[in-house]
Amino acid sequence: MTRLETMLGGSPYVAYLYGYPHKTAYRPLSPAPSLESVWARERREALFLYLHIPFCEMRCGFCNLFTAAGPREDVVQGYLQALTREARRVKEALGPTTFARIAVGGGTPTLLDVAGLHTVFDLAEQVMGADPHRLPVSVEVSPETVDAAKVAALRSRGVDRVSIGVQSFLESEVASVKRPQKTAQVESTLDLLRSAGFPTLNIDLIYGMEAQTEETWLASLRAALRFAPEELYLYPLYVRPLTFLGKKARAWDDQRLALYRAGRDFLRSEGYTQVSMRMFRARHAPAVDGPVYRCQEDGMVGLGCGARSYTERVHYSSEYAVGSREVRSIIASYSERTEASFGEVGYGFVLDEAEQRRRHMILSLLAEGVELAAYRQRFGTEALADFPELAELETHGLARRTPEALRLTDAGVERSDLIGPWLHSEPVRALMEGYSWR
């Protein structure tokens, strides 16, 4: 029996792959290279600028993001000052740069007050040279932290996409994942966001929560559609180490696959196009505007504690943690750093040529598919020769090959969280398995 066949005999929910290698494969880099050397040979015509705000009003029971709940105001201000120092040093190292996208995430960016939000956008525009009025800009918001003044500030700075984590419109379900959320407040916030005229509203929902049924899951989807979101992301519940749910002594599901299929079929019947396992896009969604950005090929500049940056050869970030004490310690150390200290890359992963090819292949396959000519043009070799294991996906009906591309079938898409980890290289798997959660 092959490794894929063994994995197919278990849960389809192994791990969500949104980047490769995963952050748990990062380690201290010694000697630490300079920012200038890391970016020296990189294309800088279509970079993604990401700014991370590692604060929330609360930590949800399923959350393993790098964030601290309920920070004091002096901690927030100290962080923003350090973010300013980092932005200046990074821009110095990058030199002339063109950005294709801007995103502000976390955590919860709208935990910041209006002045704090303007500080973040001032950094993007005045320090980094990324004009929010000319580029697609996405910001994460939450029902508990958004108000009319913050919404007006975001619109005034050119934000054209807001993403809100609702998770469920049933209070009993969100309570089961330690999220004390009131449906009336959620609906009021969604009304506010719609009335503000953001071209794209995204709503995040979660399936697989305790006591959730197909009926209640579809009820949440119907509730979401009342606000005509341009995008919907459907996330399976993951129970991860050190989270509130991860500490509960119980077995978790598995009805997630049935709920996924019910949600997928419902949204398709309502005219939504499935873009990936998680993402669904409405007919009325605006065309994606701005410069072309391809995550397989173009770099990312991450600013802030918890943000990751990607070049072709080096991926790097601050250290990662989930536990409250460790997260706060890392944020405190970040906030004390000098501008000069941000000129070194001390923690990350160096991709050799084999890992660069693998990253391109995995990220392509889990999105629009592996375009064979694009792979050949970039690497000078054939994707299916470099990765003969891909033929096994066809054998099991998980992918279909045409002369132009290899793309996942519906059966493959619903197993994206298995296929991604299956394709990890052995060195990356070993690093991830050796990671010490804290």
Describe the protein's architecture and organization.
The protein is built from 17 helices and 18 strands. It is an alpha/beta fold and 438 residues long. It has two domains: 35-281, Aldolase class I (TIM Barrel, Alpha-Beta Barrel); 353-433, Arc Repressor Mutant, subunit A (Orthogonal Bundle). The strands form four sheets. It has a nine-stranded mixed beta sheet. Strand 5 (99-106), helix 4 (114-127) and strand 6 form a beta-alpha-beta unit. Helix 3 packs parallel to helix 4, helix 3 (73-94) packs across helix 10 and helix 8 packs parallel to helix 9. 41% of the residues are buried.
Proportion of residues in helical segments? 25-40%
- Which architecture name of the largest domain does CATH use? Alpha-Beta Barrel
Q: What count of structural domains?
A: 2
Radius of gyration, whole Å: 21 Å
Morphology call: globular
Estimated share of beta-strand residues: 15-25%
Total DSSP E strands: 18
CATH class of the largest domain: Alpha Beta
What structural class should be given to the helix and strand makeup? alpha/beta
Order of the strands making up the biggest sheet: 10-11-9-8-7-6-5-2-12
- Rounded mean pLDDT is 92
Largest sheet, strands/sense/barrel: 9 strands, mixed
What is the count of DSSP helices, taking H or I runs of 4+ residues? 17
Detail the poorly predicted runs.
241-252
Distance between the termini: 35 Å
CATH fold category name of the largest domain: TIM Barrel
Mind telling me the CATH superfamily name of the largest domain? Answer: Aldolase class I
